[in-house]
What does this fold into?
Amino acid sequence: MVQYNSMPKEEGLEQGLTLLREGYSYISNRCQSFQSNVFETRLLGEKAYCMRGQEAAKVFYDNQRFNREGAAPKRAQKTLLGEGGVQGLDGEAHRHRKAMFMSLMNTEALENMRKLLDQNWKLAVDQWMDMDEVVLYEETKKIIMRAISAWAGVPLREEEVEKWANNMAAMFETPVTVGWEQHQGRKARRESEKWIEKMVKDIREKKLYVPEDKALYQFSWHRDQQGNLLDPEIVAVEIVNVLRPAVAVAIYVNFTALAIVQHPEERKKLHGGDDQALDAFVQEVRRFYPFFPFNGARVKEDFVWQGYKFEKDTLTLLDFYGTNHDPEYWENPELFQPGRNIDWENQPFTLIPQGGGDHNTGHRCPGEWITVDIMKISLDYLANKIEFDLPKQDFSYSLTEIPSLPKSRFIMKNISRK
It folds into this structure.
């Protein structure tokens, strides 16, 4: 008989509420307690495995070992992810749909996005100079919403910007909530998908013109493996899943601003907008501050890893935040040090705030380049192109809140250009 190691196991019938109470620290707390980067627990009424670290990420993103279908809880599908989208697909269906997204990540398209971001930052600063007070989180959501909508080919009137930016935010602010907040997140997802669905139908009926190189056009005419056009409802899910993750980068922009304030010695290195310095700073923000806490999958077939048996269909969570703070890989992980050698494109299992593995064939976020560009352009403005005063406010943030943000959402006053 084959002998397996006994996997560390958390006692209790259900740990879902404990996970919500501890938030980003839940998996790492137990990894430290068990002195193991994998343990068994019970979540949402079933057995689950939790994992942390670079080696765990390599296993988790092995498509021969894990499936994504059926892994996300309904409340996340109804808010954050949508139903029928690429995140829940596996195998050839996933690769075919993922190629639709990756076709947009070419040099010309990414340069266009950078130009749109810069234009919208300039526009925002012009407006901020006449405002008594600016809440950076709220304003950044609108900056990104304008830019990503134009980039994706989604028509957006100025009077609609705040509404749809807030709708996108409601989806990523509510996936782990209950009650009224969960209702608002679901409502935002439904409204947003209906908004896009009508555009898709209008494009197909030649009632709406969108440039052929834009995501809205490309997705509207995309065909599945059988040669059929995607249902308009599925196209709407995928377009929202272009817009919503981009707007979510407003969280990182808030933490970028916080890092500038909390680490003035590092801000000095950004003078002049040197691209390498900006990139180093941004990558450390992505590593250090909380964004997505973890991701889920299900074991495809029984397998053994590090002597532990992983049983078919078992829910498995990979700790993003804990892996980015794993002391086995990161020296002094609780220190903010932009000088770290972070090569996220060529080391796909080390820095994983938006997933790990291969962008083309795996489940890593296809918009990661856009995330980095949003952060770098925002950082350059905040550190080098504007001046502002900071009124007394609460910069603290909690690792028990998902998503986490500075309490004050970063308030600025007396904004001017340098």
